[in-house]
Amino acid sequence: MQSVIRPNAWVALKLPSGSTKVLQIAPNTTISLGKYGSFPANLIIGRPYHLTFELQDKLPDENFSRLRIVPTSELYAEVFAEETAPECATPATGANDTVISATDGEEFSLVDEKGNVVARSNREIIDDNARQTLTQEEIEELKREGNNAGKDVIAKLLLSHTALDQKTSFSLAKYKLLKTKKYIRRFQVLPIDVANFAQWQLEERDASKIMDMRAEMIGLVGCWGNVHYGGDDVLLEDPKAAVAQGEEACVPVDEGLLRGRWLVVDDTCGLLVAAMAERMGVLYDNEDAETEGKTEEQNKDTEEQTAATPEETHRANVNETQPGKATQEGGDIEMTDVQNAPTKPQAEKKPKQQKPRPSDFAIPYSQTNTITVIHGASQPNLSLLNYWGFDITSPNHPPHPLHNHLLTLTWLQLLKPELDASYSTPPLTASPETLASWKPSRRGNFHRKRRRYARIRHIVDSTRAGNFSGLVCASTMDPISILRHTLPLLAGGAPVAIYSPSVEALAAVADCFSVPRRTAWVSGNVPEIEGLSTEELERWPGNERFPLNPTLLHGVSIQTSRARRWQVLPGRTHPLMTERGGADGYVFTAWRAKPAEGKIAAKGKFKRRKVESEAATPASA
Amino acid sequence: MATTTRNKVSPFLDPGPRTKANSLAILQLSRDNLLPVYLQPPTGEHDGYAEGAVVNTRYGSFPHSTMLNVPWGSQIRASKVDTGSRGRKRKRESGVDACREATGAGEKDDGKDNEDSAATAVNGESAPAVKQAVADTSGFIHILPPTPELWTTSLPHRTQVVYTPDYSYILHRIRARPGSVLIEAGAGSGSFTHASVRAVYNGYPTEGQRKGKVYSFEFHEQRYHKMKKELSDHGLDGLVQLTHRDVYSGGFLVDGKSPEADAVFLDLPAPWEALPNLSRRKPQTSLDTGDAAAENEQTEWVSPLNPKKSVYLCTFSPCIEQVTRTVSVMRRLGWVDIDMVEIANRKLHTSRERVGLNLNFDRGVNNSPRDVEEALARLEEIESRFREHAAKPRDGDEDMDSADEGDMQSSAKQSIATHGNPGPSADEGSSGTAPWMEGRLITRGEPEIKTHTSYLVFAVLPMEWSEGDEAAAAAKYPVGKEQKVIGAVDKAARKQERREQLQKQQGNSRKARRKERDEKLGEASG
User: Fold this and answer.
1) Going by fewer Cβ within 10 Å, which terminus of chain B is more open, N or C?
2) Alpha-carbon gap: B489 to the closest alpha carbon of chain A (Å)
3) Structure confidence at residue B353 (pLDDT)
4) Is A334 contained in some domain?
5) Residue B188 and residue B314 share a domain
6) pLDDT of B115 higher than 50
7) pLDDT digits (tens, 9 = 90+) for A438-462
8) How many contacts (CB atoms, under 8 Å) link A and B?
């Protein structure tokens, strides 16, 4: 992840009120934080994450607020004061051998050295909200003056509270915290990674969009799905297919190369895919060191080209930063333009950077470390990946690691590819002469269609080849139906992790693998499976009695996890009073089994009933 | 041994499609009963067993030869193994036993393959005859590739283990990702080590390359040696660097060099004593623990943290007193976003709850009325029987007794006849519901739950930012050219912006808009 805030990066701004603002930090803009004020974006670009900034008062000759980094000693000043205060008091009392007792009737009273009561118990407190002598107008006036990042307002509010001396230390702290949250002009910049983003989406945006998936669940699903880096990239060799060649020139799927691939069904708009991509190291763009150099070079380049028109400069930059661009579809129209117009100045300027374009049938996808998304609609909904700079709908995409590692296909393409037009229609062919006679746009379309054909063919064939390293699922569809079609695609021992916001759907899946059901299945007394081969049993279509082949998964388990948050303050440590409710979230886990052929029975547990139920001895594993 | 050198990648990270000799496999005996086993190639009699190494469980005996070179996840049948006579060291003629035909067709061939490969592998010696395993009539297990989750539930306990619900959350929160460098202090039983290696792994490092790595520290010497052996057995040598050290006084540098860690996990009894060693700069002398270390290193103090990134930290302490002290020290050392949570995990079991009067008398069936109607029907029946009986004329005492008996018997027969019906038909499976589909599907918690593991304290230490850095950044991104406002814009301004945007786009085709978006994306990623 980035160490400093980069221009145009998505970040989360955490405000004193506890709310978060997610923004794309465009350079040369003003960022407004609502009631807390506004500041120029350039003041946080290039600065580290996690620092706390304070909006300062506008200088007389400037029309914007400058920022100040708040040192942690200041952030924690009150806690430090509290921590030291009792420490000073206790040795003194210890020396005088006096014992603090509650007999004076003021339980929890705090007395300073001179004997003045600093804070009292809550016996005398009058429950009245109207103890603040400052009127709303006066407060507004103070805010407008906006002195000292809101600290003045808070101090004045505290001073003009008539019953401040009657407050216990607890209620005083609470009151101050309340006012600080409201008036202090501070904020913190957090990076948009999966953890921060998911929390924001869950607690402040639309939780239903991500199926109420909590951080605990993201962690559990990732671990039980054993999602991890699946090996260095392996790319298939370019077949160098000529334009006149049809499907026979396509690269066949080499099952030996396919490794570290995970199957995903994602109805969380891409959050699950993002979480998996993060675990596989394909979510974030390029390493820091590289980009630093790159952007600098780019800047230099831009400066050199000041003579060129802005549009051209931009295009040249795009070309430079996107060497792999030609592999993407739709990029043709512009690209062919550039190539076929050598009279244009920029094509002459950068002849080296025009890499030989791979042929239409070159497969851009890695054979390892990939995520295969199966989706129910004709296009996958992975809109949340936009926050990490990846737009699945964009045909002409700048390079992004997800590009070579994210494969998507529909259920139709997986289960009935012959019915899918883009898979079953053979690719267009044309002789080079005919091609040259076409208009650039038509030529572009021709190449785009051929490329799409090769890509879809590769995705479908490699997915149907199976041997996936795991299945991870967070879907609104019935998990039983998902498993029916995905279980045959999993390698032996591959983990299955299914998330669901409620337990009922998962319980139904677990019931498909219940001990009595499995025992009945392997007992040999099921008429419908008699005579079926192992292959046929793996692809068991399911019926009412056996929705799934109950021997294909084992170690079936359902769990739920919940993080309970605590407040840790000197003398005031306790769990938070309220937290987000709603869906708890459950995870179903199991491993893909390769059942032994033929009848199999567990070691005799029920020997005494051997005579009557030899066939139905319950399996114990 | 040749196998271990050949397949360099740990079975935890890439187990391959099939089981291999000299590699770790997890045997799943029952759901929560897992057994880690290093599969051995069959090289003649082993420990008195003619079949070579054998795993004996309550589910049967499993010679390693039947578990080699099978696909992961395979169900393995138990074998008939002579466990009784091996202590007596009686010489057996292996040939005679091997002739006996195995009943299980599946692994017979596999077993033969293994025997062949083993024979070729041990080419130097005269290949000793390994007895062909004979499948037993019952008993089976599953063989699974090792994962941190399976290892966590099956590993030999040396200390308290960090379980999956905790470590999955911790690794997510401390941003352990491929390429991260992680410090772990208190390696303990190694469950967290295995999970964190999987999280940070992005290839084995070659010379001078920075790859994801775990720097692990263990204070206890015996545990350190056990752990060291375990790590190399698991093929994790280049990925975990284990150091035997007391990190309170010794700090976190390895060979005097900084690991440049991006994330830290402390599973120590006193994390606050280790925290000063995890600073950006030399810790203040007021913290007395730092003194000894500071004196040793008269030279420059090196931070073990990555100077270019925010560092994420998690401490794992069971007691609240430890937490308050840790948090207090964290605040003084400049850690921010301090957050304390505890994880409550529950496993749920699903079962069928069968309640009803006319169900069979199987185990787990509650033979009480299913609903009010059923209860009512039975009560009505009993009531009518009484009424019938009362209406009968009373002839004499003897007669009454006999009549009563006969009546009761007949009605009992009747009730059995009416109610006993669904039972046998369900057993047949042809009509009615199958027995495994009867009743209501329910979930319930496991009988014993872990109510408290430990408190997790998370914190972040931002990158150090000097005035010089600030000046450089200010020069690179000068202010004063602000064009528009983003963020919390009031409604009027937002509307105005939208209007302008629409005007600009009018006449532009959809394609142009798309292009614009692409360019924007390009800027964002570039």
Assistant:
1) N
2) 7
3) 87
4) yes
5) yes
6) no
7) 999 999 899 999 999 999 999 999 9
8) 375
Of B173, B348, B489, nearest to A32 by CB-CB distance is B489
Interface touch B463/A3, C-beta < 8 Å: yes
- In degrees and rounded to multiples of 5, residue B86 shows phi and psi of -70, -30
Kind of pairing between the strands at A586-592 and A574-575: unpaired
Measured between CA atoms, the residue of chain A closest to residue B192 is A223
Contact: B75, A593; criterion CB under 8 Å: yes
Determine the Cα–Cα distance for residues B501 and B521; give it in Å rounded to an integer: 18
Instruction: Provide the CATH number for the domain around residue B323.
Output: 3.40.50.150
Query: Mutate which of B142, B286, B324 to test chain A, going by most A C-beta atoms within 10 A?
Result: B142
Q: Looking at CA atoms only, how far is residue B515 from chain A in angstroms?
A: 8
Question: Sorting pLDDT into bands at 50, 70 and 90, what band is A477?
Answer: very high
Task: Count up the domains in chain A and report the number.
Answer: 3
Pair (A306, A247) in one structural domain: yes
Which residue reads 């890499």 in tokens?
A355
Residues near B162 by Cβ (< 8 Å), separated by ≥ 6? B152, B170, B188, B191, B192, B195, B267, B316, B453
User: What is the distance in angstroms between the Cα of A339 and the nearest Cα belonging to chain B?
Assistant: 19
Average pLDDT, chain B: 79
What's the rounded Cα separation, in Å, for the pair B348 and B445? 5
Whole-angstrom Cα distance, residue B490 to residue B503? 20
> What chain B residue is nearest to A570 in terms of C-alpha separation?
B324
Task: Answer yes or no: do B143 and A600 touch at CB < 8 A.
Answer: no
Give A98→chain B minimum CA distance, Å: 26
Chain B CB contacts of A28 under 8 Å are 481-483
Tell me the three state secondary structure of residue B44.
Answer: coil
What does DSSP assign to residue A207?
G
Number of residues that this document lists for chain A? 621
Q: Is position B461 within any domain?
A: no
Residues B190, B183: Cα–Cα separation, whole Å: 13
Q: Is there a single domain that holds both residue A309 and residue A345?
A: yes
Residue A587: domain span: 471-609
**Cα→Cα distances A567→A215, B294, B342, Å:** 19, 34, 12
User: How crowded is residue B295: how many other Cβ atoms within 10 Å of its Cβ?
Assistant: 8
A8 CB neighbours in chain B (<8 A) are 520, 523-524
Domain boundary among A152, A180, A208: A180
What confidence score (pLDDT) does residue A543 get?
A: 87
Question: CB–CB of B188/B161 below 8 Å?
Answer: yes
Reported ipTM: the value is 0.82
The pLDDT, as a whole number, for residue A1 is 57
A213 found inside a domain = no
Kindly state whether residues A456 and A504 are assigned to the same domain: no
Q: Do B202 and A564 touch (CB under 8 A)?
A: no
- Pair B183, B330 in one domain: yes
